[in-house]
Hints:
Layout: E1 2-11, E2 14-22, H1 27-34, E3 41-46, H2 50-63, E4 68-73, H3 82-95, E5 102-107, H4 109-121, E6 127-132, H5 135-141, E7 146-151, E8 154-161, E9 166-170, H6 179-196, H7 198-212, H8 216-236, H9 252-261, H10 268-285, H11 291-303, H12 316-325, E10 336-341, E11 344-348, H13 353-361
Parallel strand pairs: 2-9, 3-4, 3-5, 5-6, 6-9
Antiparallel strand pairs: 1-2, 7-8, 10-11
Helix pairs in contact: 1-2, 3-4, 5-6, 5-8, 6-7, 6-8, 6-10, 7-8, 9-10, 9-12, 10-11, 10-13
Glycine is lined by residues 140, 144, 146, 245, 248.
Amino acid sequence: xxxxxxxxxxxxxxxxxxxxxxGVLPQLSACxxxxxxxxxxxxxxxxxxxxxxxxxxxxxxxxxxxxxxxxVVPPGDASKSLDQASRLYNHLAKLGVGxxxxxxxxxxxxxxxxxxxxxATWMRGVTTALCPTSLEADIDASIGGKTGVNHSAGKNLxxxxxxxxxxxxxxxxxxxxxxxxxSAGLAESVKHAAISDEPFLAWHEAHxxxxxxxxxxxxxxxxxxxxxxxxxxxxxxxxxxxxxxxLLNFGHTIGHAIEAVCDYRLRxxxxxxxGMVAECRLAxxxxxxxxxxxxxxxxxxxxxxxxxxxxxxLDLEAVSAYLRLDKKAVSGTPRFALxxxxxxxxxxxxxxxxxxxxxxxxxxPR
Length: 366
Ligand code: GLY
């Protein structure tokens, strides 16, 4: 076991203990004991991870005197649903998990969002703990307290803010993560670097090869630096009211539209990579960003095996319609987190539709 970092993130009146390291997954139970212990635990995971990652967590909790049940949902985003949440409430009722219990999520973003939502709502909120197993969940989904499920009217429409008490991130889980999913997660890392930390952007450029080789110390550092950036932003605007947390949407306004219009055939991170390129071009057309920044960002994304141009054409009308209805739009006008430079983001909503269209066109196949 190698511990890379073990710290408490402080929120308004609450804190989250975050442990990053190699071989640390079973430490979840010791962390749960350290924060006071729980009478019962429900461990939520998906069918692909149950044996390898969730079962050892159940065993570890039981060895620390916390009786634990295991609930397995089918893999895939379709499980982020009220139906699956309802099944999990049945498990909690059957196990007798009360206010002194804990809901533990072991998995990627789907599992951490779903388990977090169930923990946020069961008995008006019980403690949650997360063991993210994908890079996207390590550096984004598990930090900052956003939980939720999808609805037929849209993704993440039902949810709650509820910070986990403990997050244990085992970099060993990334050794089995498919290369495409590792790269997809890296899009969020590039996003964090681009909006707040130019030296970290340069660090990605210098370490791309080790990152892509799943080098554990390198990934430990990458995860840790991402958590610092995200926690700093979230702590200043926990409920996305002050326009600061909205800066995390860089690449996501156009990215979400591409993801939806392509019928979710692209990974979220791939859509975000395309969205970041398009939104940089948008910022340049508004005269706020040097075009050289777009070239530097695109080159880095390509180095990390992320797309900077679509392989299929896109229904531009459907993209415009999606942008008008986006849940972050203000009276039908999309809101963007744009760059004025690396480390200098700004939220902007009065962007001419024609410029948005041109920016999206710029990532269409040649
Ligand atoms: N994923 C963006 C946020 O947590 O606010």
